[in-house]
């Protein structure tokens, strides 16, 4: 099956490689933004302090910055001339630039604002009186968070998670700058589609487009179903 040609110069295995890499990158990015998005959103939803607007604006910046700018900033941040880049190279013997880890970093940064905004909205909609009542009844902070807050904000969190996954899956601009487009190593679905278009292979481009459209359609449909249920 893997040796069946999908076009004049690509096998089924080569066709699936960017699909599977994109799913892996998007899933890891989702786990990261889910953890940090929930933690930061919870803190920001329940606390007021000087500079909060500035911090929130910074967190939301990837939504409005061109992806190429995000990629450039990540390239500088993780580059060999930066403190972070030097630390990574010292620990692991090499930089993450032009590896699939760089694609995860790019997808995480561009997807984070969607998770943060959805989670914060969900937490703001949770009635604090319910949480306070649980504390009066003897529940500690973690019990209140996991048994009261998270279940009440569940719909918003699911929506944010799916939107973040879809955004990570479709990331192109930042990824191609920091991770490049190395077939079998860093070539994700969006970059593979770009290369197929550049080479005039419309059949292959259409095949990858159909895959990403189907994945995105079902994720958005699931969000709509959950929204209607709530």
Q: How would you characterize the largest beta sheet?
A: 2 strands, antiparallel
Q: Radius of gyration in whole Å, from Cα? A: 20 Å
Derived structural class: mainly alpha
Task: Return residue spans where pLDDT drops below 50 for at least 5 consecutive residues.
Answer: 1-8
SSE pattern, N- to C-terminal: EEHHHHHHHHHHH
Number of self-contained structural domains: 1
The side-by-side strand order for the widest beta sheet comes to 1-2
What is the overall silhouette?
Answer: globular
CATH-derived topology: MetI-like fold
Query: What fraction, in percent, of the residue positions are helical?
Result: over 70%
Subcellular location: Cell membrane
Family: Belongs to the binding-protein-dependent transport system permease family. CysTW subfamily.
Main location: membrane
GO molecular function, one term: molybdate ion transmembrane transporter activity
Description:
- With 230 residues, this protein is mainly alpha-helical.
- The protein has one domain (15-45, 53-229): Orthogonal Bundle (MetI-like fold).
- Helices cover 77% and strands 2% of the residues.
- The protein has helices at 12-46, 52-64, 67-78, 83-92, 100-124, 128-136, 141-152, 154-169, 173-178, 189-198, 202-229, and strands at residues 5-7, 10-11.
- Strands 1-2 form a two-stranded antiparallel sheet.
- Strand 1 and strand 2 (10-11) form a beta hairpin.
- The termini are far apart.
